[in-house]
């Protein structure tokens, strides 16, 4: 089915000047960018976005990292977009990320793993609404 998923290019990948390289991988895989914005998240925003991880041992480090610099946030649309994006990103822990994936090529650590992607269609809807409350571009094709 045609799905939408939320993707974040994290501060370490933005600092590496890898926005274009990463967006290019999504497009090359047939995913369309139907919304995008660049922002420097506040501590409150990052804590709310990752609210499900509150209390976990890595939470404070994650929020500190995600607020350390600008991120690029986009909505990707296409056939099986949630799973396709996760395939392109590779495993969350870059130590387990397959060669050629975004995390294998651009991650620096488990926390600084270059990209975030929604893990399911229902969480994608919540995450898309978090960053794009006004909605995304209507389909014109
Ligand atoms: P992300 O897809 O952004 O979702 C939550 C993030 O928390 C995850 O990628 C990792 O960057 C980070 N994370 C999850 N588990 C751990 C862990 N055990 N140690 C460090 N960071 C983690």
From TrEMBL:
One of its GO terms (cellular component) is cytoplasm. The keyword Nucleotide-binding applies. The keyword Nucleotide-binding applies. PROSITE patterns: NDPK_LIKE. The active site is at residue 116. GO terms for biological process: CTP biosynthetic process; GTP biosynthetic process; UTP biosynthetic process. ATP binds at residues 10, 58, 86, 92, 103, 113. CDD domains: NDPk_I (cd04413). Its cofactor is Mg(2+). This is Nucleoside diphosphate kinase. It is found in: Cytoplasm. It holds the Pfam family NDK. InterPro entries: NDK-like_dom, NDK-like_dom_sf, Nucleoside_diP_kinase. SMART domains: NDK.
């Amino acid at each position: 089915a045609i799905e939408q998923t939320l993707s974040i290019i994290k501060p370490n990948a933005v600092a590496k000047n890898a926005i274009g390289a990463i967006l290019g991988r999504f497009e090359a895989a047939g995913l369309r960018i139907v919304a995008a914005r660049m922002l420097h998240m506040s501590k409150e925003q990052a804590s709310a976005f990752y609210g499900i991880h509150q209390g976990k041992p890595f939470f404070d480090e994650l929020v500190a990292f995600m607020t350390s610099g600008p991120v690029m946030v986009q909505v990707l649309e296409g056939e099986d977009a949630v799973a396709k994006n996760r395939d392109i990103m590779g495993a969350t822990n870059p130590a387990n990320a397959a060669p050629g994936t975004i995390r294998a090529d651009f991650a620096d650590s488990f926390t600084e793993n270059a990209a975030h992607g929604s893990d399911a269609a229902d969480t994608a809807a919540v995450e898309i609404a978090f960053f794009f409350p006004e909605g995304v571009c209507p389909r014109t094709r």
